[in-house]
Amino acid sequence: MKKLIITTIVLSFIGLLNAQTPEERGLEIAKAAEEADLGFNSSTVELKMTLKNKNGQTSERSLTTKTLELTEDGDKSLIVFNSPKDVKGTSTLTFTHKIGSDDQWLYLPSIKRVKRISSNNKSGPFVGSEFAYEDLSSQEVEKYTYKFLEENGSILVVEQDPIDPKSGYTRRIVSYNKDKGYRIEKVEFYDRKNALLKTLSYSGYKLYKGKFWRAAVFNMVNHQSNKETRLEFSNYNFDVNLSDDDFTQVALKRSGN
Amino acid sequence: MNALKKVSNVSNKFAKQWAEFVIKRKWYVFIATILLAMGLGSQGNMEFDGDYHVFFSKSNPELEAFDALQEKYTKDDNVILVLSPSNKNVFTKENLTAIEELTSEAWNTPYSSRVDALTNFQHTSAVGDDLYVDDLSYESSLKSESDILEIKEKALKEPLLVNRILNESGSVTAINITVRLPGKDSAKEIPEVTAYVRNMVEDFKVRYPNFEVHSSGLVPLNTAFFEASMRDLMLTMIMLIIVIITTFILTRNIYSTIATFIVVMFSIMSAIGFVGLMGIKLTPPSSVFPTMILTLAVADSIHILITMLQKMRKDGLSKTDALIESMRLNFMPVFITSLTTVIGFLTMNFGDVPPFWDLGNITAFGMTMAFIYSTTALPALMAILPVKSKVKRNKAEVIKNNWYSTLGEFVVKQPRRLTIISIVIIGGLTFLATKNTFNDEFINYFDQSVEFRTDTDYISDNLTGIYNIEYSIGSGESGGINNPEYLKNLNAFEDWLNEQPEVVHVNAFSEVARRVNRSMHGDNEQYYRVPDNREEAAQYLLLYELSLPFGLDLNNQINVDKSETRVTVTIENVSSAEMITFAKKGETWLKSNTPEPMHAIGVSPTLMFSKLGFRQADSMFKGNIVALILISLVLMLALRNFKLGLLSIIPNVTPVLVGFGIWALYKAQINTGMVIVFGMTLGIIVDDTVHFMSKFLRARRELGYDAKQAVIYAFETVGKALVTTTLVLIAGFAILSTSSFALNSYMARITVIIIISALLIDFILLPSLLILTSKKDSLLKAKN
User: Fold this and answer.
1) Where are the domains of chain A?
2) Residue A104 with chain B: CB contacts under 8 Å
3) Is residue B552 less than 8 Å (CB to CB) from chain A?
4) What CATH fold (topology level) applies to the domain A22-255?
5) B29-72 pLDDT, tens per residue?
6) Is A180 exposed, middle or buried (0-12, 13-18, 19+ CB in 10 A)?
7) Which of A66, A136, A176, B391 lies in disulfide reach of A78, CB 3.0 to 4.6 Å?
8) Are A107 and A253 in contact (CB under 8 A)?
């Protein structure tokens, strides 16, 4: 609430002084959003991913995600595949970095080995879905440059340009809801030729621990291929108290079993 | 007979009254026709559609199968840019940098979804215990000599590159841009892509003049269709000039020329209005409609004008009387010839190729309007214009008439011998006609003057094939593509395909499985085989997919459920028949060597075109029979004679057989465009028969001549008219035959042959038959 008051004051000053550039305001909003979500420490969630092609044929995967919040660097996360059967137990461990490429490992239960994933490429689709790895990884403020576009009631629209030259996007148009802890309502992705590629909409938001907004459904629509991917989250748990030890290669091997 | 004669009198009376009305109300009639033509013309809207899909009807099973495959994976229209550096070695720092630069610009192509090039090829390797997937040459400008040598070695060993993106010697490479056209308005989307790519290539050539660039693919094919339409539409202007010149020579009267010009322009304006009203988008076959209408419509005017001028010059009638008399004499013949032509063109609707439906309908409408304008605007204009003519005897005409009577006498002397010779020649050519084979290689639709053709030939000669076949091979279960049984069978299919002589390249998922398996085992060549264990295969695939960058994923090769994969086979330039045989061979191999879920049918645009001619021929067969029956019925009614109506089938059908027989000696390959000529030429050549037979009958009935005299009379009266209309038709179709687009040029060429044959047959076989059949009549009469 205090944050909101400050922001409101700041915003009214902009109107009077016109001193803040759109870039500065965009960055400020991104930081505010990051700040609003600070302090969840760690969480786990179950995830069902449904892929749908143009003809409506579907395919499902189910996963479990663990996240550990870090402030000095990006978050760590561990994703375990529960289905399809052939990849059950396969899991990925990711260390997001504020600056530079993320580190990522994959545990393959069939050969009981951990393999490092080539980290140059993270713009490709995640397990055949419409989500790129970069859409799902922890959104660190340092990964983009910003430009405030417009304000519609409580919605703040900010353009984000990825810093990574290997990103699949030229820009993302993100809609923040300033009245709901700067949660993201919608993201539009523009591809390398600056054509609208995908829209991600968040729905079924719930407030956890009185502070953390989490959406129950992420729906990604690819406008060029007419394919869709829906992520449904359930069983959010913010009381798991995970630590660094739960996000190591050893833990990765263990998690699959 | 009396009843029919009454009908004839009624029609004569009607034509006369009609003419009198038109002349009396000439200004009203003329203004009304201007309003009609302008009104229709204002609705005109000429839009072009170059998408190759237009050649296939919605219900075409090959198109349905191909669309289904594209929906399962990705819809891939492409532009392939082939780069040939002058030093004949792609692998230099400068050349790789240039390729990398062009590749990154290619990503900006409108609607592009993927760009495959040498530099961004996703090379897999084992680094320590890890799988490393990365661009084959990233930031090439920073590479050292030894790096480049290493890249060259890797590239030339890579089965997914060689013969697809890179030639075997490493002197030519390609960038393949896949575009996903929304398909909402192909008339806009395709030019957008083409314009961008052409600009990009121009800029590239300025920066890197040492590169030669050739382009092909489905988008350039569509562009070539598009541009062929526009070029063929331009032929209209040449035909218009020919119409003006011909009319002037034949009538030797400036006002007649103006009137004819106005009538044909009105007809074309109305047809353009029809195009707009019906929302037809022009394609190469349908874009020739103005030339067709010009060619066919001018005959109506010429018949009416020549008679009128003759009546004025020879018989000394006043302008009005001559006009009325000409209308009385020509109304029925012009009506009947228009009717048969309209029937002929409408039968194109029986076919299975939509652009020919459009051509048939637009031309049929244009011809109907040409009939209306020839019987309204034309006489009204001639009444308005100050046409004057002196009564004179034209000596040259007398000599010409002599020439036609000489021909008549020659025929009359030896009807039996001429019939036998004709039948032998026609029989021989009919036999030859069966030797023609269908070939709808879409590259060969364009002649060497078209850049698409020469570029595509260059690509076929130096790098890869343009023709392909695709199979979507199922496993029968979700995730089943990782089943070792499936992978082994897929691998065997891939190997079998590679052994076939016509195969240039095979892209199958088994190659991905082998490659990843090898890299997962420290790049050990022994593991360059499909994994033995399902979980292993699935998890390797997961790892591999997680390592791929934007736009270079496997979604174009694997369906969402991981139950099917796509096999793309690139084939040398082979004929349609060989293409169909090859696809069948593949299908049969799958049936006899793999479990049922893996059985698949081959599909691709190439295959769709290969089958197009056969499909069109099958569906047009019925249409041709209908046309023959209808046109013969019209003839029987027009001639008021059942027997002669039946007899007319011979001179109407045989020219087509002769035409295809001569074609067998000329090219022996026929395409989809030529299938329609039977119905179309039938409607045109029947005019010759109608005129000749009606004059023959008039001589018999009204003048009481015997068969021989009647034949000579027919030669004298209509010989010249038939030759002149044939010349106009030949001029029109000869102009169309210069089209760079084979569906149009072949159709026009065979039509020229058929029209000439028709005239010869009508001058030799028809009169011989008339005499021979009449003899029997007279014998019968004598007996009675």
Assistant:
1) 22-255
2) 546
3) yes
4) outer membrane lipoprotein receptor (LolB), chain A (2.50.20)
5) 999 999 999 999 999 888 888 888 899 998 888 899 898 898 88
6) middle
7) A66
8) yes
